[in-house]
Amino acid sequence: MSELSPRLQARFDELRARLPTEEQGARHQSLEQFLQDGFPHKRLEAWRYTDLSALNDVDWQLAGPPDTAPELDRARIHGACRQVFVNGFYAAHLSDD
Fold first, then answer.
1. Which terminus of the chain has fewer Cβ atoms in its 10 Å neighbourhood, N or C?
2. Within 10 Å of residue 36's Cβ, how many Cβ atoms?
3. CA-based angle 75:77:81, to the nearest 5?
4. For 60-78, how does the pLDDT look when each residue is reduced to its tens digit (9 = 90+)?
């Protein structure tokens, strides 16, 4: 495990309470798998010529619910029902009933 592991685990723990209950298990399992395997590296044949080691130095942030509403009226399709997701979270206040 790299120094990335504790940072990602801490970010996930902050976000976990805001995840829908049915998603928490799968997301936790995916995070555990990533923390075990890490980013792909050059010893894997498919990634032999791709160096991703610099990604370990990035201070990754997990996306949370949106603070502001995106501009949506331009993309409105007349007569269509609109379901809006921002950063993977359903935004009921931006969606149609």
1. C
2. 9
3. 110
4. 776 666 666 667 777 778 8
H or E stretch including 6? Answer: helix 4-16
On average, the pLDDT of the chain sits at 80
The sign one gets for the Cα dihedral 72, 77, 81, 87 is: negative
Tokens of 19: 């995840």
Which residues are CB-contacts of 90 (< 8 A; sequence separation ≥ 6)?
83, 84
79: left (phi over 0), alpha (psi -120 to 50) or beta: left
Residue with the two structure tokens 């949506």: 72
What the block records as the tokens of 82 is 């609109």
